[in-house]
Amino acid sequence: MKTKQLLIILIAVLMSLSIAQWALAADAELAATGPAGASSESEAALAELMQSIEADKSTVVGDLVDRFATDDVTARQLAATLAGASTADLAEIVENADSLEAVNTILAGPEDILRLGDLTRDYAFTPVTPCRIVDTRIAGGAFSPGQAREFYVYGTDVFAQGGAGNCPSPGGEPRGVHLNMTAVPLAGNGNFRVYPADVSPPNASFVNYRAGVQNVANAGSVKTFFTVGPREIEVLNSFGNSHLVIDVLGYYYETEHLAGADFAASSDNEVTLGAPATVKLVSITAPASGKVIVNASGYFRLASGANDTARCSISSAANTAIDFSHLIIVGENSGTAMTFVPFAATRGFNVGAGTTTFRLNCDLFSGTVSVGDPTINATWVPRTY
């Protein structure tokens, strides 16, 4: 009797261990793969966020300014810069930024993207109506020998520097500025050096002046300190005493990418078809008008019965309807075994600047059909090169 009881206890322990090992393995697999459909849900949430930003960009910008601006100057600069930001950048800021530094990092963009005209980056020049940003005869007083001062290059804050009431920057925070600097000498010979506010003074001068010469001017371009909030440039006066007048003639902004792509990966699952539905979608933000090339692929699984027929299409419409001008169709009149039919399709769309969502929509015409491993990707290219 005792032997029988011990045997029953041993069997129970072994069963408990097996169940525990099975549970641990299941947990590990869930942790490794993630919940089913999580990828699709995140893609749909991102598309919804980008659509809401496009619908009311000014409100989103206002909320972000309230969230990250620490003073009036930063608020004005941040509002101007975010107003010119792409929908994708704004979505990333809403989702991931937790500080003004993080906002600036997102706006600066990745360092490893090749731009037209430069090994790392390219800046487009935007001329503006000449606008005075500095006049030390009105505010600040003359420079003494060896004195350095920092200045804003746009916005209403230039007024306190002796500038105009407002010098707007069309693209927000600039990467560089084209200036006309005029020295108004008072005593001695000297020169002015201008440079980004976050670096040491260069050896090269921007404008040289001599005692007895009424006004000396020079125009040129200078890189700025690209960070929302602080002043963008610094000016160092060497040797003499002189007033300084600065007029801005234009700004440099980072150009958009020459091409861009986005990708909605396969979920490694099958979708049983019925009424028209979006099987997979992808959103892409075009920096300018151009063409988006959309590719979709996957496979149809047809059941063993007869008359299994299904249809899919690539569409830019904001619904689940099948676009009959571009059909991907599969069917069989009779069948005795399950059949797998791979498919791939490409379609081009003309788009304007902004975000467009493309859908792989499918429906069941007859029988029983599933779509497996659906994938869709979109690539934007300019119309001319």
Oligomeric state: single chain
As residue ranges, the low-confidence spans are 6-39, 111-117
Kindly report the average pLDDT value: 81
> CATH class of the largest domain, please?
Mainly Beta
Order of helices and strands: HHHHHHEEEEEEEEEEEEEEE
Tell me the number of helical segments per DSSP (H or I, 4 or more residues long).
6
Tell me roughly what share of residues is in helical segments.
10-25%
Name the CATH homologous superfamily of the largest domain: Nucleoplasmin core domain
Radius of gyration: 31 Å
CATH architecture of the largest domain: Sandwich
Largest sheet: 6 strands, antiparallel
Shape: rod-shaped
What is the strand content? 35-45%
- Count of DSSP E strands? 15
Instruction: Count structural domains.
Output: 3
CATH topology-level fold name of the largest domain = Jelly Rolls
Classification by helices and strands: alpha+beta
Alpha carbon gap, first and last residue: 91 Å
